[in-house]
Amino acid sequence: MGRPRTFDEQEILRLAREPFWDHGYAATSVEQLTEATGLRRSSLYGAFGDKHGLFIGAFAHYCEESMDEVRRELAGDDSTAFARLRRHLRRKTDNPASRRGCMLAKVSAELADEDAEAGRLASDAYATYEAALVECFRAAQRAGDARDDIAAANGGALLLATLRGIEALGRAGHPKAALRKIADASLTSIAPAST
Residue 171 sits in which domain range? Predict the structure, then answer.
């Protein structure tokens, strides 16, 4: 019978995701993972199988936490839905030069075509993100704050594409003011024409 684990698996996943997030999957060494988690290689492998198992666990944990945050930010009553969309898009433009970028976007770029499990997690997370945007857009429509000639599914997809574009441009060093203009232009495009 093996010895019981003396560590919190969720905390280890949270700690392990940091080097994966900083360096990507391929460039992260086992030494970086043992340093980040404080566990020996044998303990990590005993708990997660191998580097890939640890990565998938850490990435799944990240996706779950980040999509829970997205759902919380976008949920609410119809009367404040457009304001929530605005706040969410504008928040993504803050401090673009200092951000590491979204781990979901980074993993998608590095592994989605090569790693079926990472690709599935990324696809599921994007679907969750889009669904939350669609529902918030639909709520804004019910309140009369978003154009009713745009299908909610299309509005949500547009906002997701805008968010991913802001992310990519921010990581490339685009200034915050330019990113804010992109966010605001996207919001203007979905708002009803002023009378």
Answer: 59-190
Q: Which amino acid is at 18?
A: E
135 occurs within a structural domain: yes
Report residue 155 as tokens. 């509005």
The answer to whether 35 touches 18, Cβ cutoff 8 Å, is no
Tell me, what DSSP letter sits at residue 108?
Answer: H
pLDDT digits (tens, 9 = 90+) for 25-71: 999 999 999 999 999 999 888 889 999 999 999 999 999 999 999 99
The two three-digit tokens of residue 61, written as one number: 């944990």
* The residue type at 154: N
> What's the token pair of residue 160?
């997701």
64-91 burial, b if ≥16 CB within 10 A, otherwise e? eebbeebeeebeeeeeebbebbbebbee
